[in-house]
Amino acid sequence: AVAKRDKAAAGPLASDLAAARAAVTSAEAGLAAAQARLRQVRAGPTASDIAAAESALSAAKAALATAKARQDALDPNSAQHAADVRSAELALEQARNALWAAQTQRDGVCGAGPYAPKYQCDSANATVAAAETAVSSALNALENVRRPPTEEQIRAAAEAVAAAQQEQARAQARLDQLRAGPLPVDVSAAESEVTRAQSALASAKARLEALQTGAPEEVKAAEAEVARAKAALDQKKAGPAPADLEVLRARLKESRTALAKAQAARADAIITSPFAGTVVETTAKVGETIAAGTPVLTVADLSALVAETTDLDEAGAALLSVGMPVTVRINAFADKTLTGKISEIAQVATVTSSGDANYTVRIVLDQADPSLRLGMTARVEFPVGR
Q: Could you give the domains of the chain?
């Protein structure tokens, strides 16, 4: 590395020359490998290549034969299946004979009276247990052979045969290709690889020669790059131009205005309630376009419910006063009675269609009840004349 204030001799750097020489060496190695590959392709396969291909074909044929044998064993009418059943039957018979022999020997050892060593009897019993396990295993094996194959087993066997056939075909094709000699397309590809390697070597040598002798074009390009770098440095030292500062200030003002508009739009898009409560009705759907000023939610403060009369006549209204305690009976609940106080008496009567004058009385309940719902009807009892 070259540090600040280090002196450098005229001409290319040593690191550049080393990199160029390494590139030439690498290109020469690449050309040698490509030429060796071309000679190998033109010469054709060796005896060891053909022997390896023949061995691969033999292995593929053996694998195919094994797959077909397993497929045939699944056919209850095939000779292979019959042979498997007979083999399993013989194995079961041998296991039973071995069990009988072990039992006979055990009876002779353990029945010899109190003079027979216990360890011999224990060993004989262990032999009988092992023979019983062998009989059970042989019986299970026979049942498995006799059991009809499942669809999954049949499909798996067919797939295994198909895969083995494909592998044998590939091995045969590979062997045939080796015996036929090199293909023209392979020779052409190897020749193209040699041509590319020669071009890469020529380019690497030209680069090395240019560094060693000095290329006028590269010198001019380097001088131009130095001039551009010096101009950029001078501009940085001089600071930004007034016109550029004005443009930046205008862009900053535009960005701040856009931010304020976006923040205002986001605030306008949020619906807030003027008080804490419970949403009791929704009149708009998500995604629906509504006009300005259209109600979308109904919010109620269920912690402070009130009741209003609708049929109190003028004679009854004259007997009431604000603050008077009352009893409220909810029609929906036979056993629910609430208490409250009159908070407001209408100053103006509401005239019905029949000409009667009714006064609305507003009653604030003493306690909130979670079972109450907006719009429920009730009967109000005033303590008049008590």
A: 14-43+183-213 (1.10.287), 304-381 (2.40.30.170)
